[in-house]
Amino acid sequence: MNIKEKFGLKVKALRIEKNFSIEQLANISNVDRNYISDIEKGQRNVSIEIIEKIIHALDVDFATFFNDKSFKR
Amino acid sequence: MNIKEKFGLKVKALRIEKNFSIEQLANISNVDRNYISDIEKGQRNVSIEIIEKIIHALDVDFATFFNDKSFKR
């Protein structure tokens, strides 16, 4: 699995944990819903500004988000 | 300080801690040295693929890299 796919799966897992729809996450993060859908599928090479918007919308910080075995080397 | 600047400062701090020149980090990460220079100045909205290349070249993983008070909300 590549880093885009790992990132997407983690976004999706946290979104579902928070009981957010893609639409809700889009509204809170101010990122387009189609873009979020693509991110969750691992199809977007997201920028650090988009990463920040999404993970803050999911109410976590960078360290918490990336503290997951899927991101270990 | 915005997220691009925070990211750049952390890259620079770790690079210096490792005693790497920008040139060396460029060679190890396979990212252009001018691009790395811009990143350290906070001038690039880096993608997750570039982030991965750089932090692995710095011999840390995502959780370690972002586990820094500068990235707290």
From TrEMBL, chains A, B:
Top-rank taxon: Bacteria
InterPro entries assigned: Cro/C1-type_HTH, Lambda_DNA-bd_dom_sf, TransReg_Diox_bact_type
Keywords assigned: DNA-binding
Residue span(s) of domain HTH cro/C1-type: 11-65
The protein's name in its UniProt record: Helix-turn-helix domain-containing protein
Origin species: Flavobacterium suzhouense
